Amino acid sequence: MQRISLRLLRSSSSAAASTTSSSLVAWQYPAAVGPPDRRCSLRRHFIIPLWKGSGYTTMFMQVQMPYMIFTGLEDYKARGTQASPYYTVTHYTEFAETKDTVLIRGDVVFTSKLTDSEAKTLLETAHSFYVNDVRYRLVERFNKETHDFEFGDVLQVLDMPTM
């Protein structure tokens, strides 16, 4: 599996009732793969389990590069496009071709629903599904062959137990 490196450059919390936090990271991606722009533009949705305590919560991801939006799957089911995002991510690709680096700003919108550490894990996991060919097949199946998609396959590639 190709390794993705996210390096924290800066992190801050909002003084306004501590409801948001931001971080800026540099993403060093494998040169052979390149940034996931093309794959993301073709397959814009996916679900990712996020380990929390003694189980996991399922996050729904919407991608329209350079943006990624994450919300809880249950919130998305209940509110659809009106569901509030838990975490928003913006990719800055100005250095992608010359430095093989993408700068990423992530904003945790609801710190009561998602910690900074969980947000970093979520972003790393999301990227892994777009740069790893085996994992990307699950993203393709979720978007193109929905009737063949099994969430258990996602849990298996992430070495997470089925609940």
UniProtKB/TrEMBL annotation:
<dbReference type="InterPro" id="IPR010591">
    <property type="entry name" value="ATP11"/>
</dbReference>
<keyword id="KW-0809">Transit peptide</keyword>
<keyword id="KW-0496">Mitochondrion</keyword>
<dbReference type="GO" id="GO:0005739">
    <property type="term" value="C:mitochondrion"/>
</dbReference>
<protein>
    <recommendedName>
        <fullName>ATP synthase mitochondrial F1 complex assembly factor 1</fullName>
    </recommendedName>
</protein>
<dbReference type="Pfam" id="PF06644">
    <property type="entry name" value="ATP11"/>
</dbReference>
<dbReference type="GO" id="GO:0033615">
    <property type="term" value="P:mitochondrial proton-transporting ATP synthase complex assembly"/>
</dbReference>
<comment type="similarity">
    <text>Belongs to the ATP11 family.</text>
</comment>
